[in-house]
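Margin note: ligand = flavin mononucleotide.
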Amino acid sequence: MSKVLYLKGSPRDRSHSTAVAEAFIDSYKQKNPDDEIKVLNVFEKKLPAFDGFIINAKYNIMHGNDHSDAEKNAWKEVEEIIEEFKSADKYIISTGMWNFGIPYRLKQYIDIITQPGYTFSFSPEEGYSGLITGKPIFISYARGGEYPPGTDAENMDFQKRYLDFLLGFIGFTDIKSVVIEPTLTDQAQKKREEAIEKAKEIAKSF
Ligand SMILES: Cc1cc2nc3c(=O)[nH]c(=O)nc-3n(C[C@H](O)[C@H](O)[C@H](O)COP(=O)(O)O)c2cc1C
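Resulting structure:
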């Protein structure tokens, strides 16, 4: 039995990326009825602010320096979120494009889990290595405009290009995705249905 972690990155009830991820999950469940699907809504989950206090706590603890109970507890909260992430066997993310990138709560989640020694490592000899290996991930990306590969608009896409890069950085190599665009036009419904069909196909062998 596999554990699938679904990071829900859009807060909108009428979200296109959520609709596609949910169709993916329905199709996946038909083939894998015993698998556990855990939904982590990044807009609802309590995420600690990744601020100066927590960065100091991290360095004090990692370098074996004196630290307060408050620092210890704060870093433990981060570790628990990382552990929850790492404990999954497979991953799904849905996200809209916000200001050409990803919504701030999804970015906050990424800033919490992307930590040396936990999700990536560094050594002068080997450079950076991702530690989340051998696990597949599916992402549904929605955006109001169009950013097709090979066009000038692609350079404005800091959503898919960033997330694909970051996931590769922490070790993912089996990254599959669908894009729903342009959602702020009358083509939205048709594009969403096409993306749902693609997502269902990918889910069959996920
Ligand atoms: C705060 C905010 C910022 C947005 N910024 C962009 C943007 O930079 N480029 C774009 O093409 N669409 C932008 N949009 C439109 C969304 O990408 C579009 O509505 C998409 O469908 C959102 O994903 P969802 O349907 O899964 O919620 C923005 C929407 C919101 C709410």
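The two ends are 13 Å apart (CA to CA).
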